[in-house]
Amino acid sequence: MPASVHGTSKYLASEDDNIKAEAHFYDFAPLPCSLCSCFLNDEFRMRVFARIYDNRIVINKPIAPFCCCTAQICIADSVTTLFYDKPPLRSGPAPPPFCCIPFTCCGPPVMFSHNPKCCGVIDCKDFCGSQVKVAPCNLYGCKAFICCGNPCYVNCSMPLLTGVRDADEFISAAKVAVDTFKQKHKLEESQMCIFELVSDDLMDFGGSKKAKANKVGKPASAQEKE
Fold first, then answer.
1. 120 CB burial (10 A radius; 0-12, 13-18, 19+)
2. Is residue 8 situated within a structural domain?
3. N or C: lower Cβ tally within 10 Å for the chain?
4. What's the Cα-to-Cα distance from 168 to each of 14, 39, 88, 144, 195, rounded to whole Å?
5. What is the pLDDT of residues 176-212, one digit of tens each?
6. Does residue 103 form part of some domain?
7. How many CB atoms lie within 10 A of CB 83?
8. Confidence grade of residue 226 (pLDDT, cut at 50, 70, 90)
9. What angle do CA 71, 73, 75 make, to 5 degrees?
10. What are the beta bridge partners of residue 174?
């Protein structure tokens, strides 16, 4: 019998299997706002995480069927692993009948922080937290109102994490890990995810900001001091 090749892909192999960075959440995460925090208990909160490794991002969004009354034994884990060589961190195949062609015609995929504002002025982060979202392409940076507003890709994005305290720092750490992975495996630049910081401001003429490549494992404030 030939030796099994299951699980031997070079993209699945981690160099050290250490956590490079992780997200920090508000008490109400992953629910939408601070008014919902009473529906969760600490047993649930202790199982919520999003961690960055050298070759993957691992996220746990547990399920508590009886909300704050759910006992620890009844909380069900829902773990998602995102390897850097597959969507949403790399371009996926185009729709049929062109499935063999990577979908890069509208730009690379995007992972971005989305910081909420009311009427484009009032910061709502402490009330509903920031989000980490992913979009299949960046639509070449087009804006919702041609020269201002959010990038168009915000409208075709999906939330990956909600109720995040440090979404910008998480995005910056993810950029470092993915860039290192890309260089190690010599992956095509045009197929790899880009990372941006987006503020929910309809009158923003500056648009989104490119995420800075902060050192993994340190918050942005620490990088600025260095």
1. middle
2. no
3. N
4. 25, 27, 18, 22, 10
5. 999 999 999 999 998 999 999 998 766 555 456 776 6
6. yes
7. 17
8. very low
9. 75
10. none
The first and second tokens of residue 202, run together, are: 């309809």
Domain membership of residue 226 (yes or no) is no
> How many domains, the chain?
1
Tokens representing residue 138 in the block = 């960046």
Residue 136 lies in a domain: yes
64-85 confidence digits (pLDDT tens): 999 999 999 999 999 999 999 9
Token pair listed for 54: 């050298």
Q: Please write the tens of the pLDDT for every residue from 122-150.
A: 788 899 999 999 999 999 889 887 777 78
Look-up of token digits 């305290």 = 165
Residue type, 218: K
What is the domain range of residue 64?
21-216
